[in-house]
């Protein structure tokens, strides 16, 4: 087993622009239906939540290096970011046990950031 980590930061305005320009095409390529429903429920802050989930997925891609990505072969929608009962972010990834991944996301007015730590079989 090996510990792998990834981090990402993104400007919320970039995600907002992509959603406004590409609409459903962008949303349905990147996010699961549950993620879209969650973000849309946030009304005026929805772009912060979309950006945080985008950053989380990018951090996951970074944590699964090229060498490991060949083994896992995951795409955008093979990952789902959600909050547990206490509001702590969680992630489901196709082919990865929940116990082997930890995630933290945060956002402010202009940026969203995510950090992922994974325990992976080499």
Summarize the structure in short.
Helices cover 42% and strands 30% of the residues. With 122 residues, the chain is α+β, with helices and mostly antiparallel strands.
| N-to-C order of helices and strands | EHHHHHEEEE
Estimate the strand proportion. Answer: 25-35%
- Kindly, what is the distance between the CA atoms of the first and last residues, rounded to a whole number of angstroms? 6 Å
Question: What is the mean predicted local confidence, pLDDT?
Answer: 92
Adjacency order of strands in the biggest sheet? 1-5-4
Give me the count of strands.
5
Q: Structural class, judged by helices and strands? A: alpha+beta
Give the fraction of residues assigned to helices.
40-55%
Largest sheet: 3 strands, antiparallel
Given as residue ranges, the uncertain stretches (5+ residues, pLDDT < 50) are none
Number of helices: 5
**What radius of gyration results from the CA coordinates?**
14 Å
Query: In one word, what is the shape?
Result: globular
Structure overview:
With 122 residues, this protein is of the alpha+beta class. It is 42% helix and 30% strand. It has 5 helices and 5 strands; from the N terminus they run βαααααββββ. The strands form 2 sheets. The protein has a 3-stranded antiparallel β-sheet with strand order 1-5-4. A hairpin with a 5-residue loop joins strand 2 (79-83) and strand 3 (89-93). Helix 3 (33-40) packs antiparallel against helix 4. The longest helix is centred in the middle third of the chain and has 18 residues, at 46-63. The protein is globular. The protein starts with a strand and ends with a strand.
């Amino acid at each position: 087993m090996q510990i792998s980590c990834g981090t990402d930061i993104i400007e919320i305005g970039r995600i907002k622009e992509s959603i406004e320009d590409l609409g459903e095409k962008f949303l349905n390529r990147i996010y699961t239906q549950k993620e879209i429903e969650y973000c849309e429920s946030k009304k005026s802050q929805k772009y912060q939540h979309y950006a945080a989930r985008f950053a989380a997925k990018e951090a996951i891609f970074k944590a699964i290096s090229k060498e490991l990505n060949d083994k896992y072969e995951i795409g955008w929608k093979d990952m789902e970011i959600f909050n547990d009962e206490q509001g702590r972010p969680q992630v489901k990834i196709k082919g990865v046990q929940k116990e082997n991944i930890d995630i933290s996301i945060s956002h402010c007015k202009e940026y969203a950031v995510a950090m992922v730590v994974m325990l992976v079989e080499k």
